[in-house]
Task: inverse folding
């Protein structure tokens, strides 16, 4: 219940932030006054007071809604997962409302005609509104994050978790990645071995088949054999680093256990792992500070004599990874929330741009469709790359097919780019205890904020400058 | 002769639909020349092309054909825009801003220097009689008060060309008289004013020249006295005459071959009575939630301000 009482405090903090910003912006030029007007608009018309109320009450109710798990780690994971999701969803909706609503209101009321007359409006209206939205979102995000941290602190029954280096940096072994050069070399060897077989296959198909084989090999160890996995960590290993593995022993051995002999530095140990369950192998102190090292793994087979497991596979990107203590939960959450803020800023820029040529309901619908596309829904699987086993379509050389392929590749490129600002990727990592670095925030700011957001805003400015702001409503 | 501030030649505007099909020809060959220091009236019924002409002069919509020059530049350029003050037809200002904030917004958008921004705002608030209501939200203002704040924002950057779309719309007779006084004062200080209005009596009193638009064309244009002159009537106004004097005058006029069409006893106009009544109430110390009497033109516009 205490959590619910913290919500009004968070709301007050947001209110203070907004009122302070409005007061500070009484100085400055055209850009500052447009920003101030937007803040006054979203504050005095109730968008922020009500939106903030919903955000903070929702956060305050989370511990009650999610129940009380006895496992502290599970409680924290759930709180972080749902808390960040709730914050991101609310901020996204508010940035949509503020951006589309604010600009569309100027058009619907006819105010845009008056606004476009002073010489200071031309290049300042859209950027000023965007800055205002960013300030408003930050005023919501900061107290919301503080409230979430308080909830996590209460759930962990100790604040040590927040400050201690509880986050980890995750590194995959280099050996699991198959480079283009590896494929080329492997394919050349196969061609030498079997020129009649491999030489007859279409080059593209042969490459896909070779890559598939290599990936299978790099991710599996057959019984009785061993494999070395190389890890590269430029910052140097710290005490407490572990190798985390989640072996796949095959469907029929779901409940069985398997034995491995592990070689790390000079130490050799034997470990028992369960099918599909995560196990940790501590890194010996002698490797502290090392920037790269190899992990030798020998698969000794099943623990039980009557079970035969032919091989182990490291499936998925997290089948095997190095986890090094790095950063604290607070720094990781702050980075993730900053990325959420940048993403919302991009949505606001897009909203403002779309509102320069579409009306309020259509503009919002357009953006919602965009968000769905960005989240991958509806487009997942639409651009499947033909597998090695697939047959060539005889129509593939048709001009129409080439055009369709080009469009599909363009779509794939866009969807691939959009996934860069998928909120779940960082929020899930924070909830899983992984570190989100400040370098990622900088990269997100440059790519999503400056590049994507900047181009979108420039497009909006160009449209706004080129379109008629006159009598379209009357005609 | 003063140089032209607005020069329009062969102006055409065709509005098109989404598929670029012509929907309506709002202007078809308009010619206008407005000189510096003139008060010019743009008249015409609804849909005659007044607003379209103003939007083109402001650079808000683009002409289909014709030449347009505003303050020596094409319309919509930063150079011309920075010297134009505009009062839109509807009160479209942000309802959540106070009157003072609204003027501050306008001043900063028009790049009024920080040093004299506050002073100008206070002078204009005094001019339009909204000092007491300056911190109230515009949404709470009456229509007349919104019109007054609109006039103030149009003057904040001391523009050379002032475009007023229905300036007296929603104003009480006192406000209308004040607007006319301000227009007179601005004209005396060399400002060029373009007025679009349906209230012909107001236009007639303040404008030097007018043009009447209909069907997207200028149907009549010229100095107010010239286009209103009737060569078959003469109006005399004399001091109060008794019946004997009237009969004698009529007899004399008939002897001169003139027809006496109408003789009326003198009376106050309703406007005069209204202004007298309000003035008396003010002198008795009655208060109002609306606008105050207001003052003269501010000092930065070349006025003496305190002539309430």
Result:
């Amino acid at each position: 219940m205490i959590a619910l009482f913290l919500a009004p405090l968070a709301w007050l903090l947001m209110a203070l932030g907004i009122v302070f910003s409005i007061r500070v912006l009484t100085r400055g030029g055209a850009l500052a006054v447009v920003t101030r007007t937007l803040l006054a608009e979203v504050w005095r018309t109730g968008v922020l007071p009500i939106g903030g109320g919903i955000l903070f009450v929702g956060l305050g109710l989370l511990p009650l809604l999610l129940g009380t798990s006895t496992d502290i780690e599970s409680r924290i994971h759930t709180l972080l997962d749902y808390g960040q999701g709730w914050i991101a969803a609310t901020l996204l909706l508010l940035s949509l409302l503020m951006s589309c609503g604010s600009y569309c209101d100027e058009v619907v009321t006819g105010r845009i005609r008056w606004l476009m007359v002073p010489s200071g409006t031309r290049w300042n209206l859209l950027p000023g509104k965007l800055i205002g939205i960013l300030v408003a979102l930050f005023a919501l995000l900061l107290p919301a994050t503080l409230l979430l941290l308080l909830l996590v602190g209460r759930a962990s029954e100790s604040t040590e978790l927040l400050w201690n280096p509880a986050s980890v940096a995750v590194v995959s072994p280099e050996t699991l990645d198959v480079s283009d050069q590896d494929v080329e070399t492997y394919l050349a060897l196969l061609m030498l071995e079997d020129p009649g077989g491999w030489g007859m296959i279409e080059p593209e198909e042969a490459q896909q088949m070779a890559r598939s084989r290599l990936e299978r090999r790099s991710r599996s160890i057959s019984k009785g054999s061993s494999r070395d996995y190389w890890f590269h960590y430029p910052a140097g290993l710290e005490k407490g680093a572990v190798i985390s593995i989640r072996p796949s022993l095959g469907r029929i051995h779901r409940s069985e256990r398997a034995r491995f002999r592990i070689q790390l530095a000079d130490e050799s140990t034997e470990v028992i792992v369960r099918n599909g369950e995560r196990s940790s192998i501590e890194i010996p102190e002698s490797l502290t500070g090392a920037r790269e090292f190899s992990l030798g793994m020998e698969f000794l087979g099943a623990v039980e004599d009557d079970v035969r497991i032919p091989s182990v596979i490291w499936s998925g990107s997290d089948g095997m990874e190095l986890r090094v203590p790095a950063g604290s939960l607070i720094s990781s959450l702050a980075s993730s929330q900053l990325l959420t803020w940048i993403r919302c800023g991009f949505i606001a820029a897009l909203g403002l741009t779309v509102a320069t040529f579409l009306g309020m309901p259509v503009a919002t619908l357009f953006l919602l469709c965009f968000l769905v596309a960005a989240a991958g829904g509806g487009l997942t699987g639409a651009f499947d790359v033909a597998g090695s086993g697939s047959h060539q379509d005889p129509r593939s050389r048709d001009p129409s097919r080439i055009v369709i392929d080009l469009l599909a590749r363009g779509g794939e490129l866009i969807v691939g780019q959009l996934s860069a600002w998928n909120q779940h990727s960082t929020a899930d990592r924070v909830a899983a205890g992984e570190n989100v670095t400040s370098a990622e925030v900088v990269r997100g700011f440059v790519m999503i904020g400056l590049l994507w957001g900047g181009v979108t805003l420039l497009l909006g400015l160009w449209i706004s400058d080129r379109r008629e702001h006159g009598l379209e409503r009357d005609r | 002769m003063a140089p032209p501030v607005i020069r329009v030649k062969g102006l055409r505007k065709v509005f098109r639909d989404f598929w670029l099909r012509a929907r309506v020809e709002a202007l078809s060959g308009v010619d206008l020349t407005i000189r510096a220091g003139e008060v010019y009236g743009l008249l015409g019924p609804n849909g005659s092309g007044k607003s379209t002409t103003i939007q083109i002069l402001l650079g808000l919509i683009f002409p289909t054909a014709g030449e347009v020059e505003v303050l020596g530049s094409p319309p919509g350029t930063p150079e011309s825009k920075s010297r134009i003050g505009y009062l839109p037809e509807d009160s479209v200002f942000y309802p959540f801003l106070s009157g003072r904030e609204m003027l501050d917004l306008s001043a900063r958008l028009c790049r009024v220097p920080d040093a004299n921004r506050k002073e100008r705002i206070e002078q204009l608030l005094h001019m339009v009689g909204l000092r007491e209501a300056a911190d109230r939200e515009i949404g709470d203002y009456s229509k007349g008060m919104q019109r007054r704040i609109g006039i103030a924002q149009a003057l904040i950057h001391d523009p050379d060309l002032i475009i007023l779309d229905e300036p007296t719309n929603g104003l009480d007779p006192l406000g209308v008289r004040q607007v006319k006084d301000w227009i007179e004062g601005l004209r005396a200080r060399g400002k060029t004013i373009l007025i679009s209005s349906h209230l012909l009596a107001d236009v007639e009193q303040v404008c030097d020249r007018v043009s009447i638009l209909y069907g997207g064309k200028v149907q009549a244009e010229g100095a107010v006295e010239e286009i209103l002159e009737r060569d078959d009537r003469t109006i005399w106004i004399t001091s109060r005459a008794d019946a004997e004097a009237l009969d004698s005058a009529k007899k004399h006029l008939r002897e001169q071959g003139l027809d006496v069409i109408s003789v009326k006893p003198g009376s106050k106009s309703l406007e005069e009575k209204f202004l007298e009544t309000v003035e008396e109430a003010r002198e008795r110390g009655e208060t109002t939630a609306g606008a105050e009497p207001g003052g003269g033109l501010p000092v930065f516009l070349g006025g003496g301000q305190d002539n309430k």
